[in-house]
Specification:
The chain is mainly alpha-helical. 65% of the residues lie in helices and 5% in strands. A 3-stranded antiparallel sheet has the order 2-1-3. A hairpin with a 2-residue loop joins strand 1 and strand 2. The relative contact order is 0.17.
Length: 240
């Protein structure tokens, strides 16, 4: 189950990056209240989300140009569906299709810029690596994989394309981002959570989940800063 969850790590990062800054603190508080839950328990609930024909783009139509390279509808459409599903699961309004479109374009831009910067730094993921990871996921989580594909309306090819982006992003994070979490930060975060939830348990019982959450928050913030800089130096033209 953990591998299935990690497959969407990059997708989650890009949604966080694209989200409004004023929602960030509320999100952190919500996560803090759930710090003593397992990863599976903390996952968002499945939502029934549909994408109309009007929301889709012709597969050959350019949707955005990034440093002179055009990305087309064949890439946009499956990501649009994934973004819409993720937004719904995290309680965001998906009736505003323009907002969903903007989130999707932002995701495409961010993934492309990360992938290009990673490549410039010698970090690439081969088709063989993607296939190996996919085979491992399929072997260990066959039924769960089918459920995820159905839930996100993804083909295996769509899944592998996203997996490739995720693997590159993870390599990029491992190489470019180094964060540390101190015992003092853990204790301060624990005390803050305890004010909101008296039944959280003892510090030693939730220390590792809190440490993991703080590390994710710091990593997300640093990744956001890197992507912001990449965007400032890039030439991006949205075409839809």
């Amino acid at each position: 189950m953990k591998k299935i969850i990690m497959v969407l790590v990059a997708l989650t990062f890009t949604i966080v990056l694209a989200a409004c800054g004023d929602k960030e603190e509320n999100a952190k508080e919500d996560k803090g209240q759930e710090a003593n839950k397992t990863e599976e328990q903390a996952q968002p609930q499945e939502q029934n989300v549909e994408v109309t024909e009007k929301e889709k783009v012709d597969e050959g139509k350019p949707v955005v140009s990034i440093n002179g390279e055009e990305i087309k509808g064949e890439t946009y459409n499956p990501l649009y569906m994934q973004i819409k599903m993720q937004m719904a699961q995290f309680g965001q309004d998906v009736s505003d299709v323009t907002a969903v479109k903007d989130q999707t374009l932002n995701m495409i831009v961010e993934q492309k810029l990360i992938r290009d910067d990673a490549k410039d730094k010698g970090m690439e993921v081969t088709d063989k690596e993607v296939q190996k990871e996919f085979d491992t996921i399929k072997e260990q989580n066959g039924d769960q994989l089918k459920k995820v594909l159905k839930q996100f309306k993804m083909s295996e090819e769509d899944f592998k394309n996203q997996l490739a982006n995720d693997l590159v992003t993870q390599k990029y994070i491992d190489s470019e981002i180094d964060v540390k979490v101190t015992d003092k930060e853990i204790e301060e975060y624990y005390n803050k959570i305890k004010e909101q939830n008296k039944e959280i348990g003892k510090l030693e019982e939730v220390k590792e989940p809190i440490k993991s959450q703080l590390k994710k928050d710091k990593t997300s913030k640093k990744l956001q800063e890197k992507v912001k800089k990449l965007k400032e130096d890039a030439k991006v033209e949205k075409m839809i």
